[in-house]
Each structure stands twice: as structure tokens, then as C-alpha cells.
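hey
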């Protein structure tokens, strides 16, 4: 029971960040589980299984609050599921840690770009969110999320915000699309999740379900400039941490 309460706290904290900023649930949970000694495969499988429930509640909350753009949603979810399926099938013989430095380097650059746009904003412009997510973006994000234990939100949120899509729309749409990516990965990796993972999955799921509606409401009320700044800061911290662990 003590371990379950710890996993509940991890899931709650991770979902508050993910639901409000549209990213970092998988990365946060996976990093904490690995620091506790969990094997990488077990950590990744547990997180994706828990994300099925948390992303469902989070996505439904965002949809009800009007944070989801339908065109952008379909341009993310269809290639995202394809990429996630490919990544899940490859995870058995591809070491996801080998590509983490490349992903972290990319996120570091995008995080800097988001911060630059936040503090030196350009004049407002009208954007069509559905036209700003080419299929390869969702495909790559789904693939990296499946083999690396996270990255769906980090890649999509930072890229779309950097292109000028309003943060609230980005956060809500990316969270809604993540449900289908999580279902795909969890279904294909379920054989990895044995009885020893049930306390992890249960704790992460309970904590995430508690935090999901609160985080969705926060995304609606947080000012766009503040959301962009927080997004850039979170990406920088995560990317620097990932690079440091990969290079040591």
C-alpha cells in the first residue's frame, strides 16, 4: 500500500503538468520510475497503460471545455496511431535510450524558440490550426513516444505553439489525440505488463484521474503568454536533464 500511495502521487503530479501544458506525463512518470529502479521496459509499459485512463479523462475534459480543434485533432491522431504502432512493434529489439539524445537536442532547440517567441512576440496573426500539423509530425511523435516512454506531448505542443497556434487549442487537442496513441501502445505492449506492474499502473491511473479535470480547467484559464513561457521552460528542463543522463 505504501508503494501504491507513492505511485498515486507521481501520477497526480505528472498529470497536473501534462493536462495544463499538454506534455510531460510520460516523461515525468518514466523518469521517476527509472530513478526508483524499475526496468525501462516495465516503466514504459506501465506508463502507457495508465495513460489510457488519464488521457481519456483529460481529452474528454478538454473537449467539453472547447479546447479541441477538430481538424488539428484528426491530423494528429491518424498518423500518431500509425507511428505508435510501429514504435511499439520495434521496442522489443530497439533500445529507445539510444535516440534520446537526438530527441532532447531537438526539444532543446524548440524550447528556446518558444521562449524567444514568448518574450519577443510577433504581431498577432490568424492561423488555421488544422493546416499546421503535417502528417509526418504526428507519425514521428507517436513513434518516439512508443519507444522512448514519452514525447507525444513534448514534440507536438512545442512545435505547434512555435508555429503560432493558440496554447489552449494546442494543449486540448494534443491531449485528446493522445488517448488513441496510448491505447495503441498499451495494447501492443500489454504482454510486457505482468502482475508486478499492477500497483504501478493502478497508482499512476488513480493519481492521473484525480488531476485530469483540474488540469484541463487550468489550461483554459492560464494566459497564453504565461502558458507559452511555462511550456518553453518545462521543455528546456526536461531536455537538459535527458541530455545530461544520456551523455554521462
Amino acid at each position: 500500500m505504501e508503494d501504491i500511495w507513492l505511485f498515486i502521487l507521481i501520477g497526480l503530479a505528472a498529470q497536473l503538468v501534462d493536462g495544463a501544458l499538454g506534455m510531460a506525463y510520460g516523461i515525468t512518470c518514466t523518469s521517476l520510475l527509472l530513478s526508483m529502479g524499475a526496468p525501462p521496459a516495465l516503466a514504459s509499459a506501465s506508463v502507457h497503460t495508465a495513460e489510457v485512463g488519464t488521457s481519456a479523462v483529460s481529452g474528454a475534459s478538454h473537449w467539453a471545455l472547447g479546447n479541441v480543434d477538430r481538424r488539428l485533432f484528426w491530423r494528429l491522431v491518424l498518423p500518431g496511431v500509425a507511428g505508435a504502432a510501429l514504435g511499439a512493434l520495434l521496442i522489443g529489439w530497439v533500445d529507445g535510450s539510444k535516440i534520446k539524445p537526438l530527441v532532447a537536442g531537438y526539444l532543446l532547440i524548440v524550447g528556446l524558440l518558444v521562449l524567444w517567441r514568448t518574450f519577443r512576440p510577433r504581431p498577432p496573426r490568424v492561423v488555421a490550426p488544422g493546416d499546421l500539423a503535417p502528417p509526418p509530425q504526428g507519425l514521428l511523435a507517436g513513434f518516439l513516444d512508443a519507444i522512448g516512454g514519452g514525447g507525444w506531448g513534448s514534440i507536438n505542443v512545442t512545435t505547434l505553439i512555435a508555429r503560432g497556434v493558440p496554447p489552449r487549442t494546442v494543449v486540448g487537442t494534443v491531449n485528446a489525440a493522445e488517448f488513441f496513441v496510448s491505447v495503441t501502445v498499451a495494447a501492443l505492449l500489454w504482454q510486457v505488463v505482468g502482475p508486478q506492474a499492477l500497483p504501478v499502473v493502478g497508482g499512476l491511473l488513480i493519481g492521473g484521474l484525480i488531476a485530469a479535470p483540474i488540469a484541463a480547467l487550468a489550461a483554459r484559464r492560464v494566459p497564453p503568454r504565461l502558458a507559452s513561457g511555462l511550456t518553453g521552460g518545462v521543455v528546456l528542463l526536461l531536455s537538459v536533464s535527458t541530455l545530461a543522463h544520456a551523455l554521462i
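Residues 40-64 form the longest helix (25 residues). The chain has ten helices and no strands.
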